[in-house]
Design goal:
- It contains five helices and no strands.
- The protein is elongated, with a radius of gyration of 15 Å.
- It has one domain: Substrate Binding Domain Of Dnak, Chain:A, Domain 2 (Up-down Bundle), CATH 1.20.1270.
- The chain is mainly alpha-helical.
- The longest helix is centred in the N-terminal third of the chain and has 27 residues.
- α2 packs antiparallel against α3.
- This is Ferredoxin.
- Pfam families: Csp (PF03860).
């Protein structure tokens, strides 16, 4: 039995969601680095949301790639975490890095919400 016979190909919707998760993960990592360089109490409060989002999006992408039976539930959780992180980033509207991160989080949340409702 070949690999393709054991696992169906990823749908375009799944591929888009995986890409959004990985993009969001990278953006959260970059934003954490930016926060650490700037310091300050507000950045430190946002760090928790960034860390949660970074880890959740990476795990969500991994679970979809391996066709975990828990993918839909993970996508639903990931959407919530991404929404939370986007809100945290929006607390600093003058920071371009935070605004780019909020956008990546929103895009990921949207694709994850769609996948959570999809039949995987």
């Amino acid at each position: 039995m070949t690999q393709s016979q054991m696992m169906p190909a990823l749908t375009q919707q799944m591929q888009d969601c995986i890409e959004a998760c990985m993009s969001c993960h990278s953006m959260c990592e970059e934003t954490m680095s930016s926060c650490m360089q700037k310091g300050g109490q507000q950045q430190m409060q946002i760090m928790r949301a960034l860390m949660d989002c970074s880890e959740t999006t990476r795990m969500c992408a991994d679970m979809m790639m391996r066709r975990s039976p828990m993918s839909a539930e993970m996508c639903a959780l990931c959407a919530k975490v991404c929404d939370m992180c986007a809100e945290a980033c929006m607390a600093m509207p003058d920071d371009q890095q935070m605004m780019r991160c909020a956008e990546a989080c929103r895009r990921c949340a949207d694709t994850c919400r769609a996948m959570a409702g999809a039949n995987m």
